């Protein structure tokens, strides 16, 4: 069955950018590949492994590219259904960086471990027992990381004693293998000032270090200490504590990360090229100074700020409704039919709004990739 452009897909391979239907997700393939190679070089140099976060792109094609040229040795997911989508699309090593608590989900997670290497986070003894029963029923081994809460007030054990208790239970439970620790402070990633972020990092991971030391002292040394995101990976890499990075956004970037400074004080969006855009079209320019495009908040996430138009310093995206984006255009430069490349405020939820990525190089569509795990929130 052939896909109908404009109904099933926004574009086909070989189209020029002018022919692509909008609004759609656009990937600048050169920028994406540069980012993946840069991270591959960074982790090789730092002597640390990379398990990029797939919740950001939800794309098996991007995940495969991360393995081929990006130095990745596995993939992170956030949900069981997301992990399943990736495994069905050929990814062989997934870590669910989250607790899984419902019986049906635990059962699906264990079943998935008969098809791929599967890991999961744990912060409670009851969960150890639940996971062990399911893994034994399916005759599989689930890799378990004890999650250590380190300042973001999300999941994770709250004391080194609890970390040891949960790790010991995992190591004694049939069907489970104690692999180590996950510790991740999400809020810290977006602190724009590097000195302030560094201080938060030091406070956060002092907690993780105490837990890791307690595990070593208890004869349960973690083989893996996993964490880190696009805002903090330089710190994790040099910490001597972490063995694995979980960065996600570095591959695509977004306007919010664009405001963050790297450890050396440089702009993060100059270090990591922006690879993700929502391509929009001007559909009305009703009066001088105002243009309206076809990408509202059903096409571009606005939880971390409004999108920023690329290469149009005078133009500002000022408000989003469902299907309209209002642009302030004080110079009156935009006319109906003009294309606007919007840098989303937040890449992860933007990708989840679309079915397809349109990959472009040199103004021509080179790939059309499905957003494999779109909507897989279970
Ligand atoms: C989202 C997430 C990441 C990746 O963060 P980025 O800021 O996108 O690099 C890493 N680890 C966990 C547990 C996450 O939830």
Task: Spell out which ligands are present.
Answer: pyridoxal-5'-phosphate
Low-confidence stretches: none
Question: What global shape is seen?
Answer: globular
By helix and strand content, what is the structural category? alpha/beta
- Order of SSEs: EHEHHEHEHEHEHEHEHEHHEEEEEEHEE
What's the gyration radius in Å?
A: 22 Å
Give the amount of beta strand, in percent.
15-25%
Number of strands: 17
* Average residue pLDDT: 97
Explain the overall architecture.
- The protein is an alpha/beta fold and 378 residues long.
- It has twelve helices and 17 strands.
- The strands form two sheets. Strands 1, 10, 11, 12, 13, 14, 15, 16 and 17 form a nine-stranded mixed sheet that branches.
- The longest helix has 24 residues, at 194-217.
- It is globular.
- The model has no long low-confidence stretch (mean pLDDT 97).
- Bound molecules: pyridoxal-5'-phosphate.
Helix and strand topology:
Blueprint: E1 24-28, H1 29-46, E2 49-50, H2 54-57, H3 60-69, E3 75-77, H4 80-88, E4 93-96, H5 103-112, E5 117-122, H6 125-138, E6 142-147, H7 160-172, E7 176-182, H8 194-217, E8 224-227, H9 233-238, E9 244-245, H10 255-258, H11 268-271, E10 276-287, E11 290-293, E12 308-309, E13 316-320, E14 325-328, E15 339-343, H12 347-351, E16 356-361, E17 364-370
Parallel strand pairs: 1-16, 2-9, 3-4, 4-5, 5-6, 6-7, 7-8, 8-9
Antiparallel strand pairs: 1-10, 10-11, 10-15, 11-14, 12-15, 13-14, 16-17
The structure holds pyridoxal-5'-phosphate.
Pyridoxal-5'-phosphate binds at residues 53, 55-56, 97, 184, 186, 189, 229-230, 246-249.
């Amino acid at each position: 069955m052939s896909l109908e452009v404009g109904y099933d897909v926004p574009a086909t391979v070989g189209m020029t950018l002018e022919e692509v239907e909008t609004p759609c997700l656009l990937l600048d393939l050169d920028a994406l590949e540069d980012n993946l190679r840069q991270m591959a070089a960074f982790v090789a140099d730092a002597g640390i492994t990379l398990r990029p976060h797939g919740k950001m792109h939800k794309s098996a094609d991007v995940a495969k590219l991360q393995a081929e040229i990006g130095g990745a040795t596995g993939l992170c997911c956030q949900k069981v259904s997301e992990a399943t989508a990736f495994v069905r699309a050929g990814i062989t090593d997934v870590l669910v960086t989250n607790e899984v608590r419902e019986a049906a989900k635990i059962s699906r997670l264990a079943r998935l471990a008969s098809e791929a290497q599967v890991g999961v986070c744990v912060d409670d003894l009851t969960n150890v027992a639940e996971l062990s029963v399911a893994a034994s029923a399916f005759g599989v081994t689930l890799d378990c990381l004890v999650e250590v809460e380190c300042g973001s007030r999300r999941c994770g054990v709250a004391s080194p004693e609890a970390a040891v208790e949960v790790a010991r239970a995992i190591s004694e439970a049939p069907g489970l293998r104690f692999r180590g620790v996950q510790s991740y402070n999400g809020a810290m990633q977006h602190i724009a000032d590097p000195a302030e972020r560094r201080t938060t990092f030091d406070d956060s991971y002092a907690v993780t270090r105490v837990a890791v030391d307690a595990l070593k002292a208890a004869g349960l040394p973690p083989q893996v200490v996993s964490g880190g995101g696009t805002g903090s990976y330089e710190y994790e890499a040099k910490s001597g504590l972490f063995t694995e990075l979980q960065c996600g956004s570095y591959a695509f970037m977004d306007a919010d990360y664009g405001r963050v400074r790297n450890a050396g004080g440089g702009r993060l969006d100059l270090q990591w090229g922006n690879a993700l855009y929502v391509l929009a079209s001007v559909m009305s320019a009703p009066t001088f100074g105002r243009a309206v495009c076809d990408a509202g908040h059903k096409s571009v996430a606005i939880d971390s700020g409004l999108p920023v138009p690329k290469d149009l310093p005078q133009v500002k995206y000022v408000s989003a409704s469902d299907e309209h984006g209002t642009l302030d255009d004080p110079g009156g430069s935009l006319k109906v039919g003009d294309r606007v490349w919007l840098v989303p405020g937040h890449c992860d939820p933007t990708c989840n709004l679309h079915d397809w990525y349109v990959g472009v190089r040199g103004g021509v569509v080179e790939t059309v990739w499905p957003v494999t795990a779109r909507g897989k929130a279970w």
